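Appendix B. Raw example, untouched.
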Amino acid sequence: MEVYDPSGATEITELHAPRLDTLDGKKIALLSNDSWQAHRTLPLVGEMIKADHPTAEIVPYDEFPIGNAVIDADATVVRAKELGVDAVVIGNAA
């Protein structure tokens, strides 16, 4: 049997940001898109990160503008830079 991929060639036009080697000792911000139960799940995500990486510092989602309309706003980027975060986790998928 032969299987063909009908999607054809894909051109990469934008690279992802470089990935961190570890979360140990990093400052990680949680950003909320304000979807279903984000106020419950994002703190849990922070706790899970801390459990696996005790030296990580978690910046809670309420330190940033909340909602899909503002996640990519300049104010969010400025705040992340002010806080000196190394990474962000954006959630919550519904």
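End of appendix B.
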